[in-house]
Amino acid sequence: MDNLPTEIQQDTIAQVPQNEPSSEKPSEKIYDRRNFLKMAGTTLAGAALASFASGCAPKKKYEGEQKENPLEKNIRDLNGQFHTKESLHLNTDGIFNYEKYTQQNPDFGIYKQHIETHVSDIYKQYGLNPNIMKALSSSIICSHLGHWERIDSNKDLLNQRVGPMQFYSSNVLPIVEKHFNMTISIDEAKLDQNNIYFGMISLAESLKKIENTGKNNDLMSLMLADYYGGSSLVGLIKNNQEIDENHYLKSNYDLYRRTLNLLNGTPSENLETVERVPQVKEIWNKANELWPHTKFKDYEADYQKQIEKYSGSFGLSDSQLLTLFLSVALVESQGGNEKKNTSSGAIGWYQIIPAAGHIKEYNDTHPGKNYTEYDIENNDSISIEVGVWSLMKYRYNLNLEWSLKFFKAGGHWEGPEKERYLVFDFGKHYDDALWWNRVSYCSQQLLGNDNFNMGYIDYIYDGIEYKSSNFLQNSNHIHPLLEVKD
Q1: Which pTM was predicted?
Q2: Distance (Å) of CA 423 to CA 9, 355, 402, 411, 432
Q3: Which of 254, 440, 463, 465 has the greatest CB tally within 10 Å of its CB?
Q4: What is the DSSP letter of 384?
């Protein structure tokens, strides 16, 4: 894999979660993040900021109003409740304790920057103690890491959980659109920074409707109940009602309990784990049968983690994602068997290039990670983790075709500073097309068809140019260790 260029920038807006999916479809006009926050700022003009340390919510400006609205009362009560249990969430120096989340799952660290960025906006809009939203969003994100809900490509994405906050866009986008009086694209909801921001807004907005009149008056738990199951689950939780295995809200309740346990630092319950779908198992069986020389069979758990991390990317099913990961690994390293290229300096399952800064970039974008060249070459789990990331890193900016081409050959910027554009380098290296054909071949063997629409292209082998139609005619072109015998 050749040099990758400077990180592609996508100046997008920020986003949010909820409970049962609805059929209402939000409009899909896209705004960039600057305009989004600018519009949000207009909405906030004139809002009075309260001192969260004293447990006060923003005061309404209308002197004639006698009755306090539910939002103001809930915010005041919530800030006061949090003040009494700060030790659960803050270090002794008063700084929020993110460590308990990174200890639970090291991958959580990549989301911290987005949480920190958006809590101040939530404080300005609602007067909530910023540590409240840090605790809620961190608990939600961390509770879902490692078992994101699988995306079904045959169903409407609006009614499936997306992003690190794992919410239904059909529920959340209408809330955010109404809040800011603007339209938002469904695609924006999948972006990490947006997903987290919209999740925070959804949580805060729930305080407008929660009636804290039950036996359980802990507002943070009621906000989580609304987040996962709406008013129906809130009604059960605030009255401490039991939910049996056959209750229609059981799956929502399980998500709520798992997050609440993490929030409060209580031991996790034995909640039902996600079973591996039959289609994924079928791909595993076929890969081990077709290419028994690989190390795949020893690293199913590592690949399952990557499937869950990137679920839904490029609109692919879990079995298709696994096929993509395995096909590239087959071509790059014979499935983990050839982890060093002395001529190019590439190492690991996915042949990343340390000299190009790939390892440093991964560490810089994943707080708490400090992987080395030795790790990539000798620790197979780390090699898979970093390698798959390098393949998927531009999934929000490029489609599958160009992500593959960019992974293989990289690109470079051209033009004056304010008019720079990205030029892809695929096709400039003698083995680009041969690599493409081999990945295509492996994926077709696993899926039974050309599901990725890669086909075969004209290529060079041993210095000689060949037409695409010749590729399947020579085992050396396919590669003897990749060719599947009839």
Answers
A1: 0.54
A2: 15, 21, 11, 5, 15
A3: 440
A4: H
Number of helices (H), then strands (E), belonging to the chain: the values are 18, 6
Token pair 């229609």 in the structure block, residue: 248
Q: How far is CA 316 from the centre of its chain?
A: 14
Residue 136 has phi, psi (to 5 degrees) of -65, -50
β-pairing verdict for 411-414 and 459-461: unpaired
- Check if the beta carbon of residue 22 is closer than 8 Å to that of residue 171: yes
Burial of 401 (0-12, 13-18, 19+ CB in 10 A): middle
Instruction: Count how many residues are written for the chain.
Output: 486
Amino acid (one-letter) located at 52 = F
Six token digits for residue 374 = 């030795």
Q: Are residues 328 and 352 in contact, defined by beta-carbon separation less than 8 angstroms?
A: no
DSSP category for residue 459: E
Q: Which residues contact 249 (CB under 8 A, 6 or more apart)?
A: 229, 232, 233, 236, 243
Closest by CA to 225, choosing from 255, 180, 189, is 255
DSSP 29-40: ---BHHHHHHHH
The closest alpha carbon to 319, from 142, 448, 485, belongs to: 448
Q: Are the C-beta atoms of 309 and 106 separated by less than 8 Å?
A: no
